[in-house]
Amino acid sequence: VQLVESGGGLVQPGGSLRLSCAASGFTFWHYTMMWYRQAAGKERELVASITGGGGTTNYGDSVLGRFTISRDNQKNVVYLQMNSLKPGDTAVYYCRVPLGYWGQGTQVIVPS
Predict the structure, then answer these.
(1) Within a 13 Å sphere around the CA of 88, how many CA atoms are in the beta-carbon half?
(2) Which of 42, 66, 79, 84 is the least buried, fewest Cβ under 10 Å from its Cβ?
(3) Strand, coil or helix: what is 28?
(4) 10-residue block means of pLDDT along the chain (112 residues)?
(5) Residue 98's pLDDT is what?
(6) 67-72 β-sheet, strand order
(7) How would you class 86 by CB atoms within 10 Å of its CB: exposed for 0-12, middle for 13-18, buried for 19 or more?
(8) Is the Cβ–Cβ distance between 11 and 108 less than 8 Å?
């Protein structure tokens, strides 16, 4: 199993980024996929999840209405569109599949 995140970077408050997670080594469309984030000195928190077929999504309260999770089961990629970014969104963002695997993470920085 391999999960490779990309798309992080430095963005001004109010800006947008789209993160991608390319997955391989398992039957992608079978599994719910999740985005987590971990800010410095804080515990890792669930940001969003999407079921295998993409029909059901869930979001953490802090990102509801600003972030959108989606997936392309033809490409084996899950996305996280992040809009109206705030300094509190600064964190390392991780992709996860509930098989016990995590990606390496991608850093998002929103300066105050």
Answers:
(1) 7
(2) 42
(3) helix
(4) 97 98 97 97 97 96 97 98 98 95 95 95
(5) 93
(6) 2-6, 17-24, 77-82, 67-72
(7) middle
(8) yes
Which amino acid would we find at residue 53?
G
- Of the candidates 107, 26, 20, which has an alpha carbon nearest to the alpha carbon of residue 71? 20
User: Tokens representing 93?
Assistant: 């963002």
Q: Would you state the structure tokens that stand for residue 17, as one six-digit string?
A: 């980024």
CA pair distance 23, 92, nearest whole angstrom: 18
> What are the backbone angles phi and psi of residue 3, rounded to the nearest 5°?
-130, 125
Residue type, 93: Y
The answer to whether 68 touches 12, Cβ cutoff 8 Å, is: no
Dihedral sign computed on CA atoms, order 33, 37, 43, 48: negative
